Amino acid sequence: MSDEPAVRVTGLAKCFGDLKVLCGIDLSVATGEVVCVIGPSGSGKSTLLRCVNLLEEPDEGSVVVGGVDLTHEDSDIDAARRKIGMVFQSFNLFAHLTVLNNLTVAQRKVLGRDRAEANRVALANLEKVGLLEKANAMPAQLSGGQQQRVAIARALSMGPEVMLFDEPTSALDPELVGDVLEVMRDLADEGMTMLVVTHEMHFAREVADRVLFMDGGVVVEEGPAEQVIGAPEHERTRTFLARVLDPIHRVE
Amino acid sequence: MAMSKRKRARIVRAVQYAVLVVVVVVVAVAADWGRVANAFFDLDVAGGMFPEVITVALVNTLIYTGLGFGFGLVLGLVVALMRLSSVRAYRWIAGAYVEFFRGLPALLVILAIGSGIPLAFPGTILDRYVSIMIALGIVGSAYMAETIRAGIQAVPKGQVEAARSLGMSQSKAMVWIVIPQAFKIILPPLTNELILLTKDSSLVLFLGSSQVQYELTQFGRTELNQSRSLTPVLVAGICYLIITIPLSYLSRYLERRTGGTKIRSAEATEVAQPEEATK
């Protein structure tokens, strides 16, 4: 492969009405790299992630994934999205389908795989997230943590080149967070390219190759996890980390 | 005047019972029960209606209702999708369609379709079943379009986003993800539409028909004219209730069952936007 990164975002800007959410973001994720985006609520990090697969249409700037410019008006967004897995905060499993069919519906309707092939891929991915025995369950019968692992398996079943995680553990009860993070860690170890918006600082510190701190729609600070979380240079980063890491004893 | 709350409640309840007793007594004394019994409960007349009231009339009512409901459902889905379209002209046409046909008496619509289509397309001799299907379908579709639209909009936005993020086009997401869930949500109100249409199917008697095409109302009316007894009205009425009461129980059952999922999906959308909420 060339030096072309898996994801390259240039000069990205996005407004909702008068509210400027993203004010010129540059970001690149190399193939096999894990990048975590941290920052306070409303800093634009989820919007940034949603712009990478164009669930939100950027106002300005370009998004290039796997060498394809998604923001070019002639690009086939649906084709590009097949290579970009996305995991949502609220899981968004298809409520009317069994776990297995959640994993196979897009394989069959989008990739045109036959049922046997789709099932084979789906079951392999369910096994990977440790939920093979839930194949015939309905999403509503699963715990939040299980639902999120199914959602990860669903995204993986499309064979993505990049995985986006939008606060994947924020809607979970604390005791269920660990299982989901473990699946994500395994994925990172296998060399998956990952862009993760998260509040899990320990995860970011241990797994991320690079950490971005965002606030007010700009990237305030970026670098190796050790540096950004361990020894932040900017005052805003320090204030944020103090609040997140020690919410009760914080001193203003 | 000092009166305890409990005492007042007891007096109010006693008054309500008294009113009920008076009404029952007045009706019982004033009405001529002998004549009512003669008119409505003539067993000979009732017996003479069988088996045609079931094999012809009830069956035809079911056929007409089924045709109208099926066509109305398809038409309603198309109109609902037009209402949600990004093309402004489609939205406008669908809105006008709904307002127009919801605002007219079903009978007028049926009469207009029955004589209007041969008029608009000269030379076409519509099969009677086809014109019934179109007429009842249009009557039902205006209501069903609104129900379906509400159902589609009740499917959480995250479901579409998940489908799109897997590479599904807008229409694939609609067909495979949104519409199946929407229909699950609107099954109870759709069952109610079916009940309404069952009753509206009586209006097709104005389209004219031969004897083998009679549905319940026309069958009852014809028998009524022949026998000079009101018994056929009662029998036809009971036949309608045999259809509609189970449907209404079904609707209530479905409502109880889907009520649970509605609450669950409401919770799901709540956790979906914490970031917006804190902005």
UniProtKB/TrEMBL annotation, chain A:
<keyword id="KW-1003">Cell membrane</keyword>
<dbReference type="GO" id="GO:0005886">
    <property type="term" value="C:plasma membrane"/>
</dbReference>
<keyword id="KW-0813">Transport</keyword>
<dbReference type="InterPro" id="IPR027417">
    <property type="entry name" value="P-loop_NTPase"/>
</dbReference>
<keyword id="KW-0547">Nucleotide-binding</keyword>
<dbReference type="GO" id="GO:0016887">
    <property type="term" value="F:ATP hydrolysis activity"/>
</dbReference>
<dbReference type="Pfam" id="PF00005">
    <property type="entry name" value="ABC_tran"/>
</dbReference>
<comment type="similarity">
    <text>Belongs to the ABC transporter superfamily.</text>
</comment>
<dbReference type="InterPro" id="IPR003439">
    <property type="entry name" value="ABC_transporter-like_ATP-bd"/>
</dbReference>
<dbReference type="InterPro" id="IPR003593">
    <property type="entry name" value="AAA+_ATPase"/>
</dbReference>
<feature type="domain" description="ABC transporter">
    <location>
        <begin position="7"/>
        <end position="241"/>
    </location>
</feature>
<dbReference type="InterPro" id="IPR030679">
    <property type="entry name" value="ABC_ATPase_HisP-typ"/>
</dbReference>
<dbReference type="GO" id="GO:0015426">
    <property type="term" value="F:ATPase-coupled polar amino acid-transporter activity"/>
</dbReference>
<dbReference type="InterPro" id="IPR050086">
    <property type="entry name" value="MetN_ABC_transporter-like"/>
</dbReference>
<keyword id="KW-0472">Membrane</keyword>
<keyword id="KW-0029">Amino-acid transport</keyword>
<keyword id="KW-0067">ATP-binding</keyword>
<dbReference type="GO" id="GO:0005524">
    <property type="term" value="F:ATP binding"/>
</dbReference>
<dbReference type="InterPro" id="IPR017871">
    <property type="entry name" value="ABC_transporter-like_CS"/>
</dbReference>
<protein>
    <recommendedName>
        <fullName>ABC-type polar-amino-acid transporter</fullName>
        <ecNumber>7.4.2.1</ecNumber>
    </recommendedName>
</protein>
UniProtKB/TrEMBL annotation, chain B:
<feature type="transmembrane region" description="Helical">
    <location>
        <begin position="233"/>
        <end position="254"/>
    </location>
</feature>
<feature type="transmembrane region" description="Helical">
    <location>
        <begin position="103"/>
        <end position="123"/>
    </location>
</feature>
<dbReference type="GO" id="GO:0022857">
    <property type="term" value="F:transmembrane transporter activity"/>
</dbReference>
<keyword id="KW-1003">Cell membrane</keyword>
<feature type="domain" description="ABC transmembrane type-1">
    <location>
        <begin position="58"/>
        <end position="251"/>
    </location>
</feature>
<keyword id="KW-0029">Amino-acid transport</keyword>
<dbReference type="InterPro" id="IPR010065">
    <property type="entry name" value="AA_ABC_transptr_permease_3TM"/>
</dbReference>
<dbReference type="Pfam" id="PF00528">
    <property type="entry name" value="BPD_transp_1"/>
</dbReference>
<dbReference type="InterPro" id="IPR000515">
    <property type="entry name" value="MetI-like"/>
</dbReference>
<dbReference type="InterPro" id="IPR043429">
    <property type="entry name" value="ArtM/GltK/GlnP/TcyL/YhdX-like"/>
</dbReference>
<feature type="transmembrane region" description="Helical">
    <location>
        <begin position="173"/>
        <end position="191"/>
    </location>
</feature>
<feature type="transmembrane region" description="Helical">
    <location>
        <begin position="54"/>
        <end position="82"/>
    </location>
</feature>
<keyword id="KW-0812">Transmembrane</keyword>
<comment type="similarity">
    <text>Belongs to the binding-protein-dependent transport system permease family. HisMQ subfamily.</text>
</comment>
<dbReference type="GO" id="GO:0043190">
    <property type="term" value="C:ATP-binding cassette (ABC) transporter complex"/>
</dbReference>
<dbReference type="GO" id="GO:0006865">
    <property type="term" value="P:amino acid transport"/>
</dbReference>
<protein>
    <submittedName>
        <fullName>Polar amino acid transport system permease protein</fullName>
    </submittedName>
</protein>
<dbReference type="InterPro" id="IPR035906">
    <property type="entry name" value="MetI-like_sf"/>
</dbReference>
<feature type="transmembrane region" description="Helical">
    <location>
        <begin position="129"/>
        <end position="152"/>
    </location>
</feature>
<keyword id="KW-0813">Transport</keyword>
<keyword id="KW-1133">Transmembrane helix</keyword>
<keyword id="KW-0472">Membrane</keyword>
